[in-house]
Design brief:
Largest sheet of chain B: 7 strands, mixed
Number of strands of chain B: 17
Strand content of chain A: 5-15%
Distance between the termini of chain B: 48 Å
Strand content of chain B: 15-25%
Oligomer: heterodimer
Structural class of chain A: mainly alpha
Number of helices of chain B: 13
Helix content of chain A: 55-70%
Order of helices and strands of chain A: HHEEHHHHEHEHHHHHHHH
Strand order of the largest sheet of chain B: 7-6-8-11-12-16-17
CATH topology of the largest domain in chain B: Rossmann fold
Largest sheet of chain A: 2 strands, antiparallel
CATH class of the largest domain in chain B: Alpha Beta
CATH topology of chain A: ABC transporter involved in vitamin B12 uptake, BtuC
CATH class of chain A: Mainly Alpha
CATH superfamily of the largest domain in chain B: Response regulator
Number of strands of chain A: 4
CATH architecture of chain A: Orthogonal Bundle
Structural class of chain B: alpha/beta
Largest interface: A-B, 46 and 49 residues
Number of helices of chain A: 15
Radius of gyration of chain A: 22 Å
Distance between the termini of chain A: 47 Å
CATH architecture of the largest domain in chain B: 3-Layer(aba) Sandwich
Radius of gyration of chain B: 23 Å
């Protein structure tokens, strides 16, 4: 039982990333009708805003320590971050330690801008082109973004740890009445799950309870009519693109301590996120979230030794297998709407 | 006035004929040369086939730096590096056999098909007389096979699978790097000594040639040391989040986790395992431990603080204090500003060893070079006394057992050498079950 709860937790945590990325993808598809293959790259850019802030906070001046030597036997260059020299050891290092949570604030305007610039600069020219063209241009864009990041940060993963207070793990099982050490779970993964729940609720609340959101939802349902009412729906959709980018970016920022960011991390999530969108139903926001968590949990269960001993290799195909079953039984996905991608 | 009439069908036919002609491999066609790409002018071209894109691009870049340094040293430029400490004195710093060394590079992308295509192109289009490099066993085995067919020497780069000089060995292929069997042979006694003889281990293994041979070797040696295996779980190479594979470890009864992962896989699985608190756990009344059989300092950096205290093995480390290592680190560090990785070291050695064999053989003919390398004993290249065994073209030398350093003094100072396992302890017979099957075959000079 404890093993099952642990895999559910793992699945929810994996599903959080899928759900956040798929939510952004669906927002873009639902509003602008664009199949955005660069969305994984946006997730990756988000993680790299955390890396960038970490680097900025670690910007240092160099002093020579003649008492120690470097690997060539020359006097050692000691780097001291400016922030430490300005604010002292404890505050300076404390700020550096909190680089990832601080990146949340840092990344929102950056990701909004990147999303806005992407839509205005490139994507808007492809609204009336076939989906194949949109896929090609956004996929190309993803490769360009990846290579830019690789040129700046290299190909190796870059460690971006969580604040010291949230490193390590805690005994989740004790809370549920299990014996000690039965269910140990990392703090940060739990935070990731809670964070994604907050972001997802925020997006839904924004669309549900604000006038802006209402107009966007109306536009998603019938763009032409909303336009005829004299509302500049295009402008709102551009902002939605920015919001979708910020959501994926935030997913990336918070993911950085889970796995050290590297330039191709977006591609690892992209294909799965598309499966999530399709399983959830094209254009359905709740569907994307539901499918994200569902596939995350199923993927985790498929990695269990008990399951693998019955069906070897199931962990590699489970997501696609489920996608096939759902699409065969419900061709529009779990919560797909009639008429989307059907004309 | 005549008019050129171009029909679609005609164009296709002409294109097909021309394409077939162009695509015909010149390498396999017989010619006047005694062997493939016999250098005719004043230069000789070497082909450096390294990952320049993809997840191993940084390791490939480090290999390329070392190759450039080796070429400089062979041509008599720079400070000469390990040419000064190399026990063989055949190389004079005037190129190879009096010919200036030039090179071409290819991008393996750490994909077998891309690596074969780039090696083929360097052989056929650029006239490379030797191919070297790489950062993966899958790639090494693929390129080694191609070089055997094409009639050029392959000096493998970073490849650690037993199969490279085991069931997939080839007469034209040579490996300086150590292998999975040697890692396990060196690690098992150290682990038994450090963690006790009564341990239960669980393995997560990358699902490809290197992972399989690493897991099999670790299992054999650890069981030999009295440990018991709980489970060996294969993880897909594309896995990025290992949490669902780590979770079952926790309640499996195992008290040691062996991560048969390399590169990005290793960074992620180790980070995940540490985050799940495995290292803080007490199981069976013992402290839970994690082991990474094959360390790469370059990639270990990605795991940050998580490598601290973790045992593993490595082919070479820049902190060694022998004359060869000091000369190489000085040469590399002065030129590039940081110490070389083990990948850089092995490819530098391979280039020197190839050049030296050509000098001693007096020819670039792969069969002559192979003969000169077979059974060649040398020293002064950073690993102590080393033998290039004739039976399987594998180098035999001491193996380093290392541990992630608790208090690093710099960003390069991540590992400390715990023990230098003497070569006698890791040596095996050519017919050892881990290496059986396949045969070297005959050397192929091509042409």
């Amino acid at each position: 039982m404890d093993a099952i709860i642990l895999q559910i937790l793992n699945g929810l945590d994996k599903g959080s990333a899928y759900a956040l990325i798929a939510l952004g993808l669906t927002l873009i598809f639902g509003t602008l009708g664009v199949v955005n293959f660069a969305h994984g790259a946006i997730f990756m850019l988000g993680a790299f805003t955390a890396v960038t802030l970490d680097r900025l906070l670690n910007m240092s001046f160099v002093t020579i320590d003649p008492t120690r030597t470097n690997f060539l036997g020359q006097p050692l260059e000691v780097k001291t971050p400016y922030i430490v020299s300005w604010f002292g050891d404890s505050i300076g290092n404390g700020i550096i330690d909190w680089a990832v949570p601080l990146s949340i604030l840092f990344s929102i305007p950056i990701m909004l801008f990147i999303g806005y610039a992407m839509e205005r600069g490139i994507i808007k020219h492809f609204y009336h082109r076939p989906h194949a063209d949109q896929i090609l241009v956004t996929f190309g864009l993803a490769i360009v973004l990846q290579e830019i990041i690789k040129a700046f940060f290299g190909a190796n993963p870059i460690p971006t740890p969580a604040p010291a207070a949230f490193r390590g793990s805690f005994d989740f099982g004790v809370w549920l009445g299990f014996p000690a050490n039965a269910i140990i779970y990392p703090y940060w993964r739990m935070i990731y799950f809670l964070f994604s729940a907050i972001v997802i609720s925020g997006v839904f609340a924004f669309l549900r309870f604000t006038t802006f959101g209402m107009v966007v939802r109306a536009g998603m349902a019938d763009r032409e009519t909303v336009g005829l009412l004299g509302i500049d729906i295009d402008k709102r959709f551009t902002i939605m693109f920015g919001i979708a980018a910020a959501v994926a970016g935030l997913a990336g920022v918070m993911y950085a301590p889970i796995n050290s960011p590297n330039y191709h991390m977006g591609m690892d999530f992209l294909v799965l996120s598309f499966v999530v969108v399709v399983v959830g139903g094209m254009g359905s926001l709740p569907g994307a979230v539901l499918a994200g968590f569902l596939l995350g949990v199923l993927e985790s269960f498929a990695s269990m030794n008990e399951i693998k001993s019955i069906l070897p290799g199931i962990d590699q195909i489970i997501i696609y297998l489920i996608a096939i079953i759902i699409l065969l039984t419900r061709p529009r996905g779990l919560m797909g709407r009639k008429g989307v991608m059907e004309d | 006035m005549s008019k050129l009439i171009l029909t679609r069908r005609g164009l296709l036919k002409t294109g097909a004929v021309a394409g077939a002609g162009l695509a015909m491999p010149t390498v396999f066609a017989s010619g006047a040369a005694a062997y493939t790409n016999e250098p005719k002018g004043g230069t000789v071209t070497l082909g450096f086939n390294v990952p320049q894109s993809g997840p191993y691009a940084d390791e490939g870049a480090d290999e390329l730096r070392a190759y450039k340094l080796a070429v400089e040293h062979l041509n008599g430029e720079g400070d000469g590096g390990m040419l000064n400490t190399f026990s063989s004195k055949a190389l004079k710093g005037n190129g190879i056999l009096g010919k200036k060394v030039t090179y071409v590079t290819g991008d393996t992308q750490t994909k077998s098909d891309a690596a074969r295509a780039s090696a083929k192109s360097m052989i056929e289009k650029d006239g490379a007389v030797m191919i070297t490099g790489g950062s993966s066993s899958g790639v090494a085995i693929a390129v080694q096979g191609l070089c055997q067919d094409a009639g050029v020497i392959f000096m493998a780069g970073l490849t650690h699978s037993n199969d490279t000089t085991g069931k997939d060995k080839k007469a034209n292929g040579f490996r300086h790097f150590f292998n999975a069997y040697m890692s396990a042979a060196a690690l098992a006694p150290v682990l038994a000594n450090a963690y006790g003889k009564d341990r239960k281990f669980y393995m997560l293994t990358a699902d490809y040639t290197w992972g399989w041979t690493q897991a099999a070797s670790m299992k054999a040696f650890l069981e030999g040391a009295g440990w018991t295996m709980v489970k060996d779980v294969r993880t897909p190479l594309a896995t990025t989040d290992f949490s669902s594979y780590i979770a079952p470890v926790m309640n499996s009864g195992a008290d040691v986790l062996i991560l048969n992962h390399y590169g990005g896989n290793m960074v992620n699985s180790l980070t995940n395992a540490v985050n799940f608190g495995l290292r803080d756990k007490m199981v069976n009344g013992k402290q839970f431990e994690i082991v990474v059989p094959l360390y790469s300092r370059l990639m270990a950096k990605g795991a940050g603080e998580n490598v601290k205290g973790i045992l593993g093995s490595t082919n070479w480390h820049w902190s060694l204090q022998d004359e060869g290592t000091k000369a190489f680190v000085k040469s590399f560090g002065t030129k590039y500003g940081f110490p070389p990785s083990q990948a850089a070291h092995t490819v530098y050695c391979q280039t020197l060893l190839y050049a030296d064999a050509c000098e001693r053989a007096g020819t670039f003919n792969p069969c002559g070079v192979a003969e000169a390398l077979e059974g060649f004993e040398f020293d002064g290249l950073g690993n102590g006394k080393t033998l290039y065994r004739a039976d399987d073209h594998q180098c035999f030398k001491d193996v380093l057992v290392v541990r992630g350093k608790e208090k690093p003094t710099s960003e390069f100072d991540l590992l400390e050498v715990v023990e230098k396992t003497p070569v006698e302890k890791v040596r095996y017979e050519p017919d050892n079950p881990f290496f059986k099957g396949g045969s070297l075959g005959k050397c192929n000079p091509g042409a």
